[in-house]
Design brief:
180 residues; 42% helix; 2 domains; 8 helices
Length: 180
Amino acid sequence: MLTDIPAPWKGFLEKLDTLLEEPVRLDCIGGFAVVMGYGLPRATNDLDYRTLNPYNLINDLQRLAGPASALAKEYAVYVQYTAVDSMPETYEDRLTELFPGHFKSLRLFIPDPYDLALSKLSRNIERDRQDVEYLAKTQHLDPAVFRERYKELTLIGPQERHDATLEFWLEAYFAKPQGQ
């Protein structure tokens, strides 16, 4: 996990923190979570979040830091709510705070690497597959745990497609147990 916030995110998040009128918690997902939380060497210009607490501030947050905001124009990065349907039901129990104590009002959390990888299952585009491969290899993800967490998902769309994606990922990205 990064301990120093890289530019332009440092300035953007610090400025956003000063603009918030009350404490805000974001459960971050997507490339931002993989880059900031697990060290993926890639740039990302958006901070996708799945959950905002308190939720009633979603419009205020988008006005302050969304794609069309003055803050986004100044720093060329932004926050964005993303409705992700592929998260294990108990993912909140395994969240980790990014940069604890750095901000006055802003608190950023990321899912553990299994849950974060599974959040990419439904979309399954090339960048998502690269993120899953990175997480599987660098975080030494256990295929049995990954499969168990997959069973917690409630997915939209054909179950066969999701099952096939899971099997492909396990075969392509996860280390084989010793002796196999």
